[in-house]
Description:
Elements (H helix, E strand, L loop, with lengths): L1 E5 L3 H13 L3 E5 L2 H8 L6 E5 L7 H11 L4 E6 L4 H9 L4 E4 L4 H28 L13 H13 L6 E4 L6 H10 L8 E5 L5 H9 E2 L11 E2 L1 H4 L4 E5 L6 H13 L1 E3 L6 E3 L3 E6 L3 H6 L5 H7 L2 E4 L9 H17 L5 E2 L1 H9 L5 H15 L4 E2 L1 H4 L25 H15 L4 H8 L3 H10 L6
Parallel strand pairs: 1-2, 1-3, 3-4, 4-5, 6-13, 6-14, 7-10, 10-13, 15-16
Antiparallel strand pairs: 8-9, 11-12
Amino acid sequence: MKILVIDDEEYMRDSCCQMLSRRGHKVIVAEDGNQSLKIMADRDFDIVILDLKMPGISGMEVLKRIRSNTPETIVIVITGYATVESAVEAMKLGAYDFLPKPFNPDELNAIIKRAEEKRKIAIENIYLREQLKKYLGMDEIIGESEQIIKIKELIRKVAPTDSTVLISGESGTGKELVARAIHHYSDRKNKPFVTVDCGSLVETLFESELFGHIKGSFTGAINTKYGKFEIANTGSIFFDEIANIGINIQSKLLRVIQEREITKVGGTHTVNIDIRIISATNRNLIGEIKNGNFREDLFYRLSVVPIHLPPLRSRRDDIPVLANYFLHKFNLERKKKIEAISNRAMKELIKYRWPGNVRELQNAIERAVVLAEGNIIESTHLFYRPFTNNEWSFPGTTDNEKLTNFTLESVEREHILKILKKCNWNKSETARLLKIDRKTLRLKIEKYKIKSD
């Protein structure tokens, strides 16, 4: 733990420093409120031990500043003028605990130990509560094909190591599932798993999101912020669609991999980190390197162990397994009792190309579960009906159904346009309803040249 001791008495500062350093903590001391605020302006502390009675800026004022700037920091108040009133006031302002002087090493160590636990929980609450619910094991990687069996074997081999892993594959093939499985079977499985969506972050804020920033370092930096690297410390960080990050950030990421330390935006002090880096891309990074869009040295650092996920159309034997898995899942979620997928419907599922891969199949089965009124999913439950036409399309079309005017692209364009209009061109809401990310929606809007009226 990084601990700041603020006290105007040299003896007290030295005593606390020695006691805490022997316990393995990194300790810095400040002799008054002014010095402490300067120290805290560009570095973070897990715990602050704060004297209430000091010349200049009072301990109460320092406490207020800490709670405003870095609310996750644990503050332990100490004073030789212990009163009920001062204790109550300090606790109201957000102090973790109150320790009257004089105190012995055991008393200090006991309160520091409790504060450590609270600190860990505070950091987890920034990001990890929802993530812990999503820890996924190998059972979530569904399939019996030779390709999937080999991928599972590779995951088991690479998971216990700390080697960087680069997962490639088309959108919807399950790259994040593989990343989570690697984390789940590693020694870090009870530590944070933090995802960085490289496609959704604004480039100007990317550095702040990754490294954090110091209060006042730029317009809008009203508080000191913890970056993704610090939140992921001791765990794993997953860069989803890493090809989207710019050259400037690529060079800084390379330095993090090499040095295992970061510096906050606006800060001057480095923070050591211990993380496992997993990345994913749906683009050909070798081609991106040739085009000058991706650093070759970073590519080799990230791809110590490459894992490629094949598209669903190249492992059609897995389609029935996946379809039945999703049928069971959505039966439970939607409180339905659908028994099976008809033979004809299954043949059409197997025949379809699935450009959206497993994610598209999952959405198709969910829609079928919602639409089906009987015990069996039929072909009609799998089809997609365009808003402007009563004929069926998607996914299993035949000559008898006279659907030659409805290509998949034309249907998809029309559907995206309708949902955009329904959402008043709110792209975030449209992406949510379509169950795709904003980047994918933006690319499809550009591809189909969709414009508002």
